[in-house]
Amino acid sequence: MADRQMRITADNEARRGSYSNLALISHRKEEFIIDFLFVDPQTQTPQADQALLVSRIILNPGHMKRLYHAIGENIEKYEKNFGKIVLPPTLK
């Protein structure tokens, strides 16, 4: 498929994209589900966190594996151009 070209079209809303600051991934034998969420710090309370589902993507296992590799390749390219991405320590 490397030789093929694809023309992609999108309406204005899709081209604007959506912001997500949290993703949850779950799976079962037939599919992976990625939920992209937005957590607004202004709506959080000491008793409960709230998140808005921005988008849900459902992939078969083969597509998920290709996405996994594509993300890894892009992170490597990003870090080569802009420096290492440093993650904060995990809260426990």
How would you explain this protein's 3D organization?
The chain has a 3-stranded antiparallel sheet. With 92 residues, it is α+β, with helices and mostly antiparallel strands. It has helices at residues 12-16, 61-82; strands at residues 22-28, 31-38, 52-59. The protein is built from 2 helices and 3 strands. It starts with 11 loop residues before the first helix and ends in a 10-residue tail after the last helix. The chain has one domain.
**Sequence of strands across the biggest β-sheet:** 1-2-3
Helix and strand sequence: HEEEH
> Total domains, how many?
1
- What's the average pLDDT? 92
Number of strands: 3
Helix percentage range: 25-40%
Question: Could you say which structural class the secondary elements and strand pairing correspond to?
Answer: alpha+beta
Query: What is the rounded Rg?
Result: 17 Å
Distance between the termini: 44 Å
Write the layout of secondary structure elements.
Layout: H1 12-16, E1 22-28, E2 31-38, E3 52-59, H2 61-82
Antiparallel strand pairs: 1-2, 2-3
What is the structure about, briefly put?
The chain has helices at 12-16, 61-82, and strands at residues 22-28, 31-38, 52-59. It has 92 residues and is α+β, with helices and mostly antiparallel strands.
Features:
three-stranded antiparallel beta sheet; extended; 92 residues; 2 helices; alpha+beta; 25% strand
